[in-house]
Amino acid sequence: MRFFSLLALPLLATAAAPAQGPAVHVTGWARATVPGQTGSAAYLSIHNGQRTADRLLAVATPAAAKATIHTTSTAGGVVRMRAAGPLPVGAGQMVEMKPGGMHVMLTGLKAPLRVGQQLPLTLRFQRGGLVRTSVPISLEGGGGGHRH
């Protein structure tokens, strides 16, 4: 009997432990398109619930041939976009992508992104691994007039 009690202790300790949520939580939205439009953007809020910093290395979606992290800047009245390297996300911090700033550029769309649908995304983090999510497709979703 004592033997079985000793075996049960680790199980009880595990059962009493609080459930762990996802280390990285992602929300956001993607801009709707019109027929024939081959590019768009997704704007994400990434919360790193880990105790250590992480980096977003890549984004993928079955809806587009390519999904890349881009930044937008304006200098002398000229708007420029450029690919960004891995995106750092500090421990316990949140990074927010917004129109006119950082975003996920979607190129080679396989079909129009329609309002009310969801865009499936897979994000690859250096420490957090793969995070699969989907974001709603809307016309504005939260601001700005940034277009691709």
UniProtKB/TrEMBL annotation:
- Source organism, top-level taxon: Bacteria
**Pfam families linked to this entry:** PCuAC
The yes or no answer to whether the keyword Cytoplasm is present is no
Signal peptide bounds: 1-19
Checking SUPFAM superfamilies in the record gives: DR1885-like metal-binding protein
Q: Which organism is it from?
A: uncultured Sphingomonas sp
Q: Which keywords are on file for this protein?
A: Signal
Identification of the protein by name: Copper chaperone PCu(A)C
